[in-house]
Amino acid sequence: MCRNNKLLILEDDKARNATLRAIMDFLGEDGHFIGFNELDAHIAAEPLGGDYVLILIGDDCPHWGEELVAKINAWNDEVAVALIGSAPELSDFATPLKCKVIGALEYPATYNPLVDLIHRARMYCEAQSANKKRAQQRPVHLFRSLVGTSREVQDVREMMSQVADKEVSVLITGESGTGKEVVARNLHYHSDRRDKPFVPVNCGAIPAELLESELFGHEKGAFTGAISARAGRFELAEGGTLFLDEIGDMPLTMQVKILRVLQERCYERVGSNKTVPADVRIVAATHRNLEEMITTGGFREDLYYRLNVFPIELPALKDRAEDIPLLINELVSRMESEKRGSIRFNSAAILSLCRHSWSGNIRELANLVERMAIMHPYAVIGVQDLPAKYRHVEVEDENFGVEQASAEVKGTSMVSLSDTPLLPDQGIDLREYLTGLEKGLIQQALNDTGGVVARAADRLSIRRTTLVEKMRKYDLQR
């Protein structure tokens, strides 16, 4: 969370400064006033950027422009910038710097606009601080599917902690989309092999006639089209971990050769009789029932026991529905850290998602979150916004209390309108965004109260006459 709280005012006009100082004193804000030509000296005196949340710049500043904002950003990349006076011209600014300039404070300054500007500056500062914190955390590919408080996920974490640093083969089973590769990557990350390669191979995606060459490599001229020697996945994973995904799809002829590598720790390239030692840890995964395949002759029993030294079974998402709110939070955080947008879901939408069967598991959930972020960027998603198959709560019953939703998902935290909004890199039309938000909340208040304007005004904490004016402005009906 951003802990900055000071305001820096860059302005030569004494009358403007006097007005702003009076309002800031009334608000209890810590404002520092300097002239246009004093900024460089101020930056030199506070090389770490100070504790500023907002820099207000007079619109007659001779240095106003992208160069000045870039200088401020290099000094303090969490502080927001606004102009005192006319709206800023940003058309020629680079996208990251456009986001930094959050608006303008009309002169003469008044109480409400300044309070609003400071609030938005703190939101910007918190968003920048949160992005920094996420960037310093472990790689994003390590979080998915391991987030949650359910007993099933805790059991998986416990098993992973027991085997991560052991030199044994692991067989990960579970439905498609439950995060088998994520578990494999975590096992590698927490092993003594973490500084060596992690090499994934999807055994079902490679044609049977090419799989041997793909795994073991080949010599020049070993077969038609082999115009040069090539290293295989075992060689690329030397010293690290080889992840054999969907090993249940591997042909029987290749199963024999994989068994030999596991037993003898060596292999030969296709077209060569030279034995190559293999210092590789094998982690395999499948969504198939290998024991049934052994019965029908589709999988070798000896290879199964070589791979299944330590089995880890991943639960289906429908069996850990209480983790869905936390998973959504993490998926949204990942999108935001990768600068691919943002979104929020209200309590009713999350409850509806918790009731879904999720045949595609976490992969399906991730796809839904991304789709909603594309269709409704930076919006709060309700049940009516979800695709039809995900609506398991009646739209007219959407406005229930958070307590009911919390009870159904075992008290886990909700993603709601109270979450901190993040400013997109490309910027937004703030006036249009706030207008749409206000219009939506007014309509919701009217719907909740059966069109009784006085009660809707109470819910919005505004006067009845003010609400009537806004209804007329937005052409809203009871």
From TrEMBL:
Top-rank taxon: Bacteria
Domain Sigma-54 factor interaction: 146-374
Source species of the chain: Gilvimarinus gilvus
Keywords: ATP-binding, DNA-binding, Nucleotide-binding, Transcription, Transcription regulation
InterPro entries in the record: AAA+_ATPase, AAA_lid_NorR, FleQ, Homeodomain-like_sf, HTH_Fis, P-loop_NTPase, Sigma_54_int, Sigma_54_int_dom_ATP-bd_1
The protein's name: Sigma-54 dependent transcriptional regulator
Pfam families listed in its UniProt record: AAA_lid_14, FleQ, HTH_8, Sigma54_activat
